[in-house]
Amino acid sequence: MVLSDDEWSRRILCSDGACIGVIGPDGQCKECGKAYTGDLPLPVSDGPTDEDDTAAQSGDGDEAWDDFFSETDPEDGEDPVPDPEWKNRILCPDGNCIGVIGPDGRCGECGKSVSESGDDNLTASASGEDAAGTESHDHADSTPA
Q: What is the DSSP code string of 17-62?
């Protein structure tokens, strides 16, 4: 769905500064569900227009994105092999950060250290030890840090 310039300028953003959503026809944010604070500046559209339906029928819609983000290659029909490190990653302890803790014990995005979190289990996981302080051997295929 591609918005025209007019539709783009009529969007009403969520009044919560930490949210990325837009206000729907019911006066609620489509992302976080909060009601818009204050009077709505413009009438909000009730939904997709005929133009949106035409784009979807002509194949100009989200199919390209669906193909791009699909988990399998449509040509081989096989499920992808999961990366073993994906399950072993440690997310940044800062709830507002999207980073992952690297081998140095720091977040790759914000630089925060695991030890700054105060969570002994998280600190031990990042160093390859269990909560008791002994070395963990959960990951047979991982290399020592």
A: TT---BB-TTSBBTTT-PBPSS--SSPPP-S--HHHHHHHHTT-ST
Predicted TM-score (pTM) above 0.85: no
What is the rounded distance in angstroms from the CA atom of residue 145 to the CA atom of residue 143?
A: 6
Interval 104-138: pLDDT, tens: 999 999 999 888 766 655 555 555 554 444 444 44
Alpha-carbon distance of 51 to 11, in angstroms, equals 17
CA 33 to chain centre: 17
Parse the chain into domains and list their residue ranges. Answer: 84-127
Question: Cα(88)–Cα(81) distance, rounded to whole angstroms?
Answer: 15
Q: Which residue has the tokens 């008791």?
A: 132
Q: Which residue has the higher pLDDT, 95 or 7?
A: 95
